Amino acid sequence: MIKCKKFLVFANEVKDKELRWSKSVVEYIQIRGAEAVLYVSGQEDERDTLDTDADVIISMGGDGTMLRVSHVLSNRNIPVIGVNLGTVGFLTEVVVTEIKGMIDRLLIGDYSIEERMMLSGTVYTSDGVKVHDALNDIVFGRDSALRLISVELKVNGRHFDTIDADGVIISTPTGSTGYNLSAGGPIVQPDAKMIVMTPISPYSLSRRSVVFGVDDKIELVLLEKRMDKDSNGLVAFDGAENYHMKVGDRVEICTSDSTLKLIKLDDSNVYEILRKKLGG
User: What is the pTM of this model?
Assistant: First the structure.
């Protein structure tokens, strides 16, 4: 791998109080003779305002910060490594005690890169058309407390199923250990190429997750559930970009052209990480 000479440190003020760790990373990189720029997440229009020619991005926070990086820097083709300042941290590679060793290895090119697929969702509502990518999942859920929604699932333009549930999760392999796991969906090797559909609390004894191919096109349409109440829904991209949905609104989902390049420093696999982080 290339020797990293230019670093972007992507900081999260919520996880890193007073930017203590992020500033120390910048300082150490500069001491080692490389360039480092500190960027604090949370600014408006980050996708338009953040431009960088960095060799690597160091994400300082947790999985949420890594997801933010994947959204803001999509199509930039810059590899990312995460420092875990949060809790579980499936996407983050190192902890704070390993920061200096991490930087030393990046400087000499001692690392590998793992490419993760992303999803692209196109939301069609009366307000227009919106397109977003997601690294973990696109969730079509209810927008009213304690009320089921009815969702038609189409695959490659053909009716596949109608699901009455709290919602439907469309997940990447990376996102299989997130909301999908909590909803009873399968754990998938993160560098695999597939799409996982998991109902959220379905009103059925037989509903199960379904695995689709990477080339399949999935469409979710909000149906009318009851005559006397509004059947409102909500579509969320990685829990961040949210859109309110009404009956007839839909989201079309496919594999994105963008990917996230994750830097790996060791050969531990997802099953070891699961055992360490979730117990067992």
Answer: 0.88
Q: Tokens 């399949």 — which residue?
A: 216
Q: Cβ distance 168 to 220 under 8 Å?
A: yes
Is residue 63 among the annotated active site residues? yes
Would residue 165 be called left, alpha or beta, if left means φ above 0 and alpha means ψ between -120 and 50 degrees? beta
Judge contact between 223 and 151, C-beta under 8 A: yes
- At 45 the pLDDT is 56
* Residue in 16, 45, 48, 63 annotated catalytic: 63
Give the list of residues 6+ apart from residue 219 with CB closer than 8 angstroms, or none: 152, 153, 154, 155, 157, 250, 251, 252, 253
Average pLDDT, the chain: 88
Running DSSP on this structure, what letter comes out for residue 51? Answer: -
Alpha-carbon distance values, 131 to 38, 106, 118 (Å): 29, 34, 13
pLDDT digits (tens, 9 = 90+) for 218-262: 999 999 876 656 678 999 999 888 999 999 999 999 999 999 999
